[in-house]
Amino acid sequence: LGVKTGVEIGETAGILAGPEYSEQMGTYWTGGNTIQAAIGQSDNAFSPVQLAAYTATIANDGTRYDLTCLRSVTSFDYSDVLLRRVPHVSGVIEDPEGYLGILQEGMVAVAETGTAASALADYPVPVAAKTGTVQNDSSSINDGVFVCYAPANDPQIAIAVVVQKGGSGSRLITIAKDLLDYWFGSSSVVESAVSPDNSLLK
Question: Where are the beta strands (DSSP E) in 47-188?
Answer without folding.
Answer: 63-65, 72-74, 81-84, 89-92, 128-134, 143-150, 157-163
